[in-house]
């Protein structure tokens, strides 16, 4: 899907996952790199995506829970897809190069990141799925407000789980 100048691919789609994973492993094995940085490892927004893979997953979930409502089910499913992709990248790339650092540009407001873009960046740290989060603290609401910037950065640092926060 082409949105806001970017071409977005659904993290739930197997071929998308496979391609991203193969690129990460290729970079880790072919080049003398110290790390991989994941940018845009999220959905483009809360209205994206109702691809066939997601529809099939919902149909399967309905077989188990017939009263399930799509809009209630979708956010958790999407969060799981992004987190699964991050976990696969971390596992496969560090299997090739154990000291490789994996970092990600993460939404600057954790609540919005989790609920709108389905990026559970604090969960990635807590579960050892990533080495460092890099909150994008350059948005207009904090750019010229040192107190707000510091508060937002501290929110991430508080939940670093022994890993790194690089604002």
Write the layout of secondary structure elements.
Blueprint: E1 2-3, E2 6-7, H1 14-30, E3 35-38, H2 52-64, H3 70-96, E4 101-106, H4 110-115, H5 121-126, E5 132-135, H6 140-143, H7 146-158, E6 164-165
Parallel strand pairs: 3-4, 4-5, 5-6
Antiparallel strand pairs: 1-2
Helix pairs in contact: 1-3
Quick recap of the structure?
With 167 residues, the chain is α/β, with parallel strands linked by helices.
Helix content: 40-55%
Mean pLDDT: 93
Order of helices and strands: EEHEHHEHHEHHE
Low-confidence stretches: none
**Beta fraction:** 5-15%
Number of helices: 7
- In whole angstroms, the N-to-C terminal distance is 29 Å
- Number of DSSP strand runs: 6
Please characterize this protein's 3D structure:
The protein has 167 residues and is an alpha/beta fold. Helix content is 51%, strand content 12%. It is built from seven helices and six strands. The strands form two sheets. A four-stranded parallel sheet has the order 3-4-5-6. A two-stranded antiparallel ribbon has the order 1-2. Helix 1 packs parallel to helix 3. The protein is globular and about 45 Å long. The mean pLDDT is 93.
